[in-house]
Task: structure prediction
Amino acid sequence: MTITNKQWQDDVALHRYQMIAPLLSEDLDNAKRVALRKKIAADNNTTIRSPYRYEAAYKAQAFTGLRPVDREKRQHSLFRKISENCFLKQSSFDGKSRNDP
Result:
C-alpha cells in the first residue's frame, strides 16, 4: 500500500486539526487559550509556536492551510532559479575561457 503525496498531506493536516480543535472554541478567554496551547505543545512534543501557526493557518485557509507545503515543487523552482542564474553568469563571459590570452 503506497501513500500518495496528497494522502500524506491530508493525514498531517488532520493531525494538526486534531491538535488545535480545542483552541477553535469561541468561549475561551486569552489566558485559557495560552495555557491550552502550552499543554497541546507539551502533549505533542512540539514547540509552543506550532499551535499558534496551525491555528492561524486554519483561520486563514481552513483545512487546506494545515497541509504541509509540497517540497517537490519548491525544490524544482529553486533549481530553476539556480540554473537560470548560472546560465546568465556563463553567458556574460563573452565566450572566453579563463585560459584564453
In short: The chain has a mean pLDDT of 82. Residues 5-69 form one domain.
